């Protein structure tokens, strides 16, 4: 049977599938050519990340297809319910990239509270001529230790982020409409571990008490953080969004940054991917990455292996 990894897959995943007799194709096929390619090559398994969309045209017109796999967590680029109605298996890898996304959240947090995103813009331009001015401009940093992190969505990635926050010495409060309490195990280098219980509270309480916010929710029809939510936050709060574009109202976000209601934002995802708004990209208070939350070698190895394991279990 043939597997098309249209957005790529790790070598570990390829090896695991080939060892079980699957043929793995890593050709990147254009969206409008996918149906023909799948049919001509009798593809049984289509693996995607976020770039390829698997909608009804593919589901209805590709009779050889048995499995649609998403390398990652969110499956908003797949018509999941419709595919399952038509008898297809739809799989994803919800746990594989949690640690990588959580570490990126803290890369944005640490960078933002010490102005690294802006310093790295200005030091190459003015570091040799205005060193003392830049030193003064970036002198008012903030420590994360002792601050409160508000986690909105305390699923797998939210918990992985909370784990780092606890290790850093932050207080963690969380809102999640589907989870009442979680236990967060924090493992140390020498084999010791401690477990922390976090009981979720109301969204309003998180908004009012947290110093910084991190979102870990699926795509929504409405903004999770918009102007009303920002107005409830502490003055000088910061927001990190490494979840999905569109869960934060970017117009309200930029306005709050310009009015100094918020001190910074860190964005890995955007409302208008792959062409983010220029106002967002050019704002000096925004730390930017191009949707790379799961883009570590370790996460991609785990994703590939986990997809391979599920495919083998289903088809063999």
Describe the protein in words.
The protein is α/β, with parallel strands linked by helices. It has two domains: 112 residues, NAD(P)-binding Rossmann-like Domain (Rossmann fold), CATH 3.40.50.720; 192 residues, NAD(P)-binding Rossmann-like Domain (Rossmann fold, 3-Layer(aba) Sandwich), CATH 3.40.50.720. It is built from 13 helices and 13 strands. The strands form three sheets. Strands 7-6-10-11-12-13 form a six-stranded parallel β-sheet, sandwiched between helices. It has a five-stranded parallel β-sheet with strand order 2-1-3-4-5, with helices on both faces. Strand 6, helix 8 and strand 7 form a beta-alpha-beta unit. Helix 1 packs parallel to helix 13 and helix 5 crosses helix 8. The longest helix has 19 residues. The model has no long low-confidence stretch (mean pLDDT 97).
Could you write a compact summary of the structure shown?
InterPro entries: D-2-hydroxyacid_DH, D-isomer_2_OHA_DH_cat_dom, D-isomer_DH_CS1, D-isomer_DH_NAD-bd, NAD(P)-bd_dom_sf. The protein is an alpha/beta fold and 316 residues long.
